[in-house]
């Protein structure tokens, strides 16, 4: 069983246990004896069964089980100790066990709420609030259902409840020690930029574009979705003038995966102000990285990218030879882009397909009709990629894969989620059952270039209640906090930094660090044994633990976030910051 399914199973069992105790208590109060006994017995078994899932999760990593061991287990134990024996003695008057059964229900439910609303790390505040909730609910139930508790008992319950409530609330709403990210830092550009050799102007504006015969409202660069494809040869100096015609919420250009100097990174509020209607901003940087990249707005990026403010950036080592095409996949107003193209290619021609995922969720790409190699991922060439046949690749949000092959005589087709997007002729292969490539085991390995880590950070991804904003929200969290309350990862120039990224949630989080590529060390404790993988975007699936490392060689304040952009917008955004 994967950790992801363990997390889900544990949640389901906890819900069943809570429902069983509460249902047992309610039916006992209604004197429905057989039903009450049945439900309570079921709840008892479910509560005990959680011991198994909690232990299994703890073995997968403390992050997955911390609050379950520290808060849920004691509360469940209390539930079993209070309700269990009374249940076994099952008195004639079943109504007399209603309060103990309901108490068990409150205890198990509040433990569940701690997991769902708070998660990792377990905090004293959350534990105390859970206890307060149980005490309050039990006290009320007792009053309603009688027999009236003795004065000492009710005073004790009241005192426990009030004390837990006051302390818990105090701890929970105490201002977060997390400093915001200071914006007044200046990181002088140490990399000099020569005279521009390529100049482009991108004008952002609202428009209507035609997709598969339908007129679709979009936000576009130069009136087209995707925006103009920017190409350069390594060593070029790019100068891109961004103008905003009428995007009220502002625009910027972020060079996704391109490790530009910080001042050119295009993150509003961090590296520049958003460019408002009528304004412009000039980006200038040297094309010193070869490969497949893309650009997109980082201002309300959740909406802006979805509406069409993105385009391709390709830097080649030399002018392209053979067939070299980019396939930037996107979903615009529910319609898939690009529209299918078919162009015959002469047999023997070298072909490079640059696959780009500009959406917020993973896409599955399958190349039929030829064997191929994955030559590069996220712009970085792989070592010793071997030929693949009938194998799909899963590209995370923001990620890029370059597939290369020599055109065969028969037609070839690229399918994205089962839809033919690019082909050289008719191909009718079913690709749905193909296995997916695991890049961690693909290609030839070489030793990890880091022997020590100067800084280590754990990033635990989850959901949780965020009370620090104007309105409470159910945020996507990192280490129990949501942007802007997540402490930045502070490093020094030259540090070798290790991130351990843990997904405790039930959804995929495509992780993306700006300004650096990270080397994958391991996933779920198993070392990466294929070609060194230097990534800027990778899917951390539910229950997965990724270890990645990089050298801090690009000073600045860098966004470090989930590239499922609605998640980033809902709190899952942190920053890497140089001292
Ligand atoms: Cu492609 Cu911060 O993003
Ligand atoms: Cu996410």
From TrEMBL:
One of its GO terms (molecular function) is copper ion binding. InterPro entries: Cu-oxidase-like_N (IPR011707), Cu-oxidase_C (IPR011706), Cu-oxidase_fam (IPR045087), Cu_oxidase_Cu_BS (IPR002355), Cupredoxin (IPR008972). Coiled coil: none annotated. The keyword Electron transport does not apply. The chain crosses the membrane at residues 6-23, 35-57, 69-88, 100-120, 126-145, 157-174. CDD domains: CuRO_D2_2dMcoN_like (cd04202). The keyword Membrane applies. GO terms for biological process: cell division. Gene3D superfamilies: Cupredoxins - blue copper proteins. It comes from the Bacteria. Keywords: Capsid protein, Cell cycle, Cell division, Copper, Membrane, Metal-binding, Oxidoreductase, Transmembrane, Transmembrane helix, Virion. Residues 206-318, 479-577 form the Plastocyanin-like domain. This is Multicopper oxidase with three cupredoxin domains (Includes cell division protein FtsP and spore coat protein CotA). It comes from Micromonospora avicenniae.
